[in-house]
Amino acid sequence: MNIDIQKVVEELPDNLQAIVHPDNPVEKRLLAASGAIPLVPRNLAIVLFILTFDENAEIKTAAMSSLKDIPQEIMIDMLNDKETNPDFLDYMVRNMGNEKYNQAVALNSSAKDSTYEYLARNEHSQTNIDIIANNKKRILRSEKIVEALSNNPSVSRSTLDEVLSFLNLQLNREYSGSYKAERSEQSDDVESGQLSDEKTEAGDVSDEEYTESFFDRHDIDNEFIEETEEEATDIIQDSVYSRIQMLNMAERLKIALQGNMEARRILIRDNNKMISNAVLKNPRLTDMEIVLFSQSKVVDDEILRRISENRKWMRLYQVKSSLVNNPKTPVHISMNLLRHIREFDLRKIMVDRNLPGTITTAARNILKEKK
Fold first, then answer.
1. Which of 137, 139, 180, 366 is deepest in the core (most CB within 10 A)?
2. What is the mean pLDDT of the chain?
3. For residues 250, 251, 253 and 257, what is the CA-based torsion angle, rounded to 10 degrees?
4. pTM
5. Contacts of 201 by beta carbon, 8 Å cutoff, 6+ apart
6. Nearest to residue 121, comparing CAs of 107, 137, 132?
7. pLDDT tens for each residue of 256-299
8. What is the Cα–Cα distance from 42 to 278, expressed in whole angstroms?
9. Integer Cα distance of 294 and 278 in angstroms
10. How confident is residue 214, by pLDDT bands cut at 50, 70 and 90?
11. Residue 287: which residues within 8 A CB-CB, separation 6 or more?
């Protein structure tokens, strides 16, 4: 939290500045921190907010307590107001832990992107997460918000998929004839991050174009995009890996969606789930790569789950067999695939000590049934 409290003070009218000024006697500042001075709720909230930064520990504690005691309805009205100081909005999000307060801030276009990033990383409410993920303007202009969402364990796979699909559409908008039509339909909801029936909560929404995507700010080296006919040597692979690891999230995401085979091989193992999942949306992905990913012991099990959910890939026997033979594949997926495995491969599975006992036992039972 980086708040220039002196700047906040300087924006106050003189009578309020006098209350919070360090030269005001401690007794009077403590009285104000206790909420015992006659101020309208909005002014009282700002005064209390400033006093939580007072050098006197007793004043700080009293101010925080009084701030929490302000009726929720009054506080939500203030947090919804676009005229409310953005630093105050940020403070309330980081210090109150109130789901309804967070929702009001998420719907307030005056909130700073850094506040939004904090919410994206720490919010647990699915409603609030949806508000954040559906705010297209924020998503497009801040890669930090996207990264925060992808690292929040409370964000569902479907929500991340929607964000990733939107970013992919944005990345390829020049090739999409339907993009402008879709943008026009969504534009009323962009700034609020809400569906049309919630628009009144967020205030009026302008019908302007989406802001520049963070993708547009990053040119990607052709080395990561162009396919090469020659197989890369270990030295070249290590070099590419090192260079990709130095890239920021937006650059890696762009490469995951558009990059060549070598880049895909590296980014499928990226620690950021949104990036590794983006590789599976790369239109240049081949069936052989899917087989290799299915065999990999180093990819996240989330990748194996997603492969198992794709009907096109699951038509390939090699993919089914690779998933069953991979100890990282979730057991329930392997169990569902066992009856599609040929007898020769089942015999190898039942003696494979690297696989869970549940799988080897099931393979043995299936073989017995076939006798």
1. 139
2. 87
3. 140
4. 0.79
5. 80, 107, 192, 194
6. 132
7. 999 999 999 999 999 999 999 999 999 999 999 999 999 999 99
8. 45
9. 16
10. confident
11. 313, 316, 319
